[in-house]
Amino acid sequence: MSPPQQDADPRAEDSYSDSDSASDILNTANDEGWEDVEPEEDSQPVVGLFSADVYPDVRVMLKETRERYNFDLVKVQKEFDLDFLGTIKLVNYIRSEVQKGNKSPDVSSKSVFDDDSYLKPVLDDDALLYNLEDLADDSAEEGNNEKTTDKRVAELEEELELLRGQFANYRLAVQTSMSEQLQATDDSVPAKPVATKSEAATRIEDADEGYFTSYSTNTIHETMLKDAIRTDAYRDFIYDNKGLFKGKVVMDVGCGTGILSMFCARAGAKMVIAVDNSNIIQKARENVYKNGFADVIQCVRGKIEEVTLPVPQVDIIVSEWMGYGLLYEAMLDSVLWARDHYLAPGGLMVPSHTTLRIAPYVDSDFVDSHVTFWKSVYGFDMSSMLTNIYDEAIVTGAKPENVVADSAVFLPLPLHTITVEELTFLKNFEVTLKEDIDGLDGWNIWFDTFFMPSPTSKFNDNAIPSDMKKEGFVAFTTGPFETETHWQQCVLLADHSERKPVPLKKGQVIKGSIAYKKKEEGSRALDIEVKWNIDGVEERKQSWSLQ
Ligand code: SAH
Q1: Higher model confidence: residue 77 or residue 201?
Q2: Catalytic residue among 13, 67, 329, 392
């Protein structure tokens, strides 16, 4: 059951410092020349029309544009009596001219920019296009002098309704044209000469494309969202710690459907940058818009390592990056890249820690169904299928009785400090059998996840999620002793084809080492190797691949 939601942060004094926070960048209070224009509470930063400067909101940007560049967008809009789409064309026309280096675009006639090609946004997620209502409000203020307030309010309401409808249509049209554009780009990019690219690089590039495509389907997101152990944990941490999120700039690395971004927006974040390189971002955009968060959450399509963001740093990075065996997918590499390039000093990683655990595994039923099975399938000998059967790590759900010793943590991952290099490792571990067994069938690996409220929170590497929860922290396990998650566990079967298992006694100590490394550089697949030694009775080494 989920803990009750709270408005106040129960561990507020433990939270990280506000100073140096990325949200200060958006705080205009101290910026010269902007004192007289207070940004609205739900304002959205916007890139200047004639410069790459980011302004706290559209009004401030337009004021600066009038004063510094002598260009009055609202005046031009009125002069040509531009409707919503006309104004969009005007904005995109100016932006495209400025991009070409022309800082004095010709606006002497409407025909200059009255072309449907200007409906395509020049900037990704251009906040100006999403806030054109602000322009309407500006002109409304002047109209108020002439008309009665009531009549004007009714007119404005009508106008707003119309704008909302046009805006929704425009947004959908933009999404469609953007995906068409992307497809067109993909198709039209000439294949690079084979000689310039190694086979491995091509393989990895193809695999990468497949990786992001796999995240474009509903099914995978449905599986993740319905994994309540996972999704509740993020929700509970964010909602139970609203104090940490209020007024902050958050980055959601790999936003998928946008769920974590929306949790953050609902918790009071000032701005959320939701990044994803899969087509699912289009759904995220729609979800964000339909739930009324378009002014807080900016969806950016692309790899986090390649996109241009509207802010130089963020206060909080939230991400659900965990893969099978924790590190399969190598998405953590991208999250750590984002941390090193964007997280403000003292900023918070959500989650903050994960730990990898290993335990000896015994399950003769599973071995029978997975291995012995092939010896007779519907009465046919399919033992050809047994070739390399022990080489693959298997993602499956173990039962508590399959784990015959207390597990050992072999890699703690403090997410504020760990480096990508440390994700390739060789670590020792030691476990003591809790019962007599006929033989070891292999190893069971899983991970635990912890959400500490500060980058400096004390954390014990051997922490157990259920104990941490009793202390009021948010944590979850993917191990076999609690509700199964979609990650299940990773089973490494010991190769019994040539060496029969040795019976072992309760109390016997198994000393081992485990190594993780990427299948090849840039690959998302893993090679895992375990060496183990049982009191000199059995000494073995075996490798598995997780792909
Ligand atoms: N945050 C969502 C989805 C998590 S799945 C949720 O919790 O439900 C991980 C997502 O990260 C996928 O949609 C994938 O496309 C995206 N992703 C992985 N690596 C990425 C990268 N380097 N840049 C951008 N998006 C990435």
Answers
A1: 77
A2: 329
